[in-house]
């Protein structure tokens, strides 16, 4: 983890499940990664009807965006999840935990939405990173 980012969870606050309550950042640049969905490089939807497969594609897309800037998941300070069925978040967490540092996870929000940009999409994730 970068010395520029410090994650914390005050004991006076509720326990967390794969996210941090607070991120303190000292950085030169803030990078905003647009909401990523389960499109592959050619624009095809990966994993129609399967939130786990879609989440895997979304995290691969975020990884590609980070890599293009020579950054990694340790540089992310905030993830925002949009799901058409919030009860599927447990499956998304399984994928997320393969990418983030589970000992110092980024801050996070999860929101249920009625629909995404295409009717076959089940999840969208946006990220904020720093360097």
The percentage helix is 10-25%
Shape: globular
What is the C-alpha radius of gyration, as a whole number of Å?
15 Å
Helix count, per DSSP?
Answer: 2
- Please give the number of β-strands: 6
What is the end-to-end distance? 11 Å
Structural class: alpha+beta
Beta content comes to: 25-35%
Mean pLDDT: 95
Low-confidence stretches: none
- Main beta sheet, described? 4 strands, mixed
Outline the structure in words.
- The chain has 131 residues and is α+β, with helices and mostly antiparallel strands.
- It has 2 helices and 6 strands, in the order E-E-E-H-E-H-E-E.
- Strands 3-6-4-5 form a 4-stranded mixed sheet. The chain has a two-stranded antiparallel sheet with strand order 1-2.
- Helix 1 (51-68) packs parallel to helix 2 (89-96).
- The protein is globular.
- The relative contact order is 0.28.
Q: Which secondary structure elements does this structure contain, and how are they paired or packed?
A:
Blueprint (H helix, E strand, L loop, with lengths): L4 E4 L13 E4 L4 E7 L14 H18 L7 E8 L5 H8 L10 E6 L10 E8 L1
Parallel strand pairs: 4-5
Antiparallel strand pairs: 1-2, 3-6, 4-6
Helix pairs in contact: 1-2
